[in-house]
Amino acid sequence: MVDPYESLLKKAYEQITEPSGTGERFTIPEVRSYIEGKTTVFENLTELADTFRREKEHVMKFLVSELGTAGKIDGNRGIFNGKFETSQIANGIANYFNDYVLCSECGRPDTRLVKDDRILLLRCDACGSHRPVRKRKAKAEEPAKLFEEGKIVDVHIQSVSKRGDGVAREGKFIIYVPGGKPGQTVKIRVTRVSGSIVFTERAI
Ligand SMILES: [Zn+2]
């Protein structure tokens, strides 16, 4: 069986690796992270930033805002307050790549950030095109909309509650999934939301 995390990563990478004219592919290094106490350590922050030819401070600032938390840089590592899945960090990295690295014209990552007046532009060394850096909407609101009654959502089960339900976490939300097993990614329908607690049933 294919590990759901693996397949998620694979999908994310497939979306952001574009074949170039010569058939060579740009591959984003895999994110390595682990949870340590109440923090999450992103081991290869510098490696990722170097691959993108971006400042690690810039990458970190973006990730912290994507994850809706605080964090700091410790040598080559980024440290986030709170517990995050590697897939969440990899998602943030994929978003960073799309917004701040990838040339939307030619699909190459050989770009630079340049300031033109007060506008931040992404200039491509490969094809010479440039575009304003896309402004992303604040992420913080998204989970709330995600967990409205009746919505069907994929969630990743991380643990099991005392009652035996699978438990997933998304931002401030705790999602209970009847019969869910840790490690599974399951499609659920939201049946009720009470504060940050989300009750669900399996959706087929
Ligand atoms: Zn280009």
* Ligand names: zinc ion
Question: Under the CATH scheme, which architecture of the largest domain would be assigned?
Answer: 2-Layer Sandwich
Fraction of helical residues: 25-40%
Shape: elongated
Main sheet summary: 6 strands, mixed
**Could you please say which CATH topology of the largest domain applies here?**
Defensin A-like
SSE succession: HEEHHEEHEEEHEEEEEE
Taken together, the total number of domains comes to 2
Integer average pLDDT:
86
Pick out the low-confidence regions: 18-23
N-to-C CA distance: 19 Å
Summarize this entry quickly.
Helices cover about 25% and strands about 30% of the residues. The chain has about 200 residues and is an alpha+beta fold. It folds into two domains: about 5-130, Defensin A-like (2-Layer Sandwich), CATH 3.30.30.170; about 145-200, Beta Barrel (OB fold (Dihydrolipoamide Acetyltransferase, E2P)), CATH 2.40.50.140.
What does this molecule look like?
The chain has 204 residues and is an alpha+beta fold. It has two domains: 4-132, Defensin A-like; 143-202, Beta Barrel (OB fold (Dihydrolipoamide Acetyltransferase, E2P)), CATH 2.40.50.140. The protein is built from five helices and 13 strands. The chain has a six-stranded mixed β-sheet. The longest helix is centred in the middle third of the chain and has 15 residues, at 86-100. It is elongated. The model is unreliable at 18-23 (pLDDT under 50). Zinc ion binds next to loops. Zinc ion is lined by residues 103, 105-106, 108, 124, 126-127, 129.
